[in-house]
Amino acid sequence: MIKVGVSGALGKMGKEVVSAVCNSQDFELVCAVDVIEIDTEICDGVRINGDLKGAIEIAKPDVMIDFTQPKNVFENTKICLENGVRPVIGTTGLTEEQLNTIKEMTEKNGLGCFIAPNFSTGAVLMMKFAQMAAKYFDNAEIIELHHNQKKDAPSGTAIKTAQMMAIENPNLAKGNCEETETIPGARGGVANSNIHIHSVRMPGYMASQEVVFGSAGQILSIRHDSVDRKCYMPGVLLAAKYISEHNEFVYGLDNIL
Ligand SMILES: NC(=O)c1ccc[n+]([C@@H]2O[C@H](COP(=O)([O-])OP(=O)(O)OC[C@H]3O[C@@H](n4cnc5c(N)ncnc54)[C@H](O)[C@@H]3O)[C@@H](O)[C@H]2O)c1
Question: Do 170 and 204 fall into the same domain?
Answer without folding.
Answer: yes
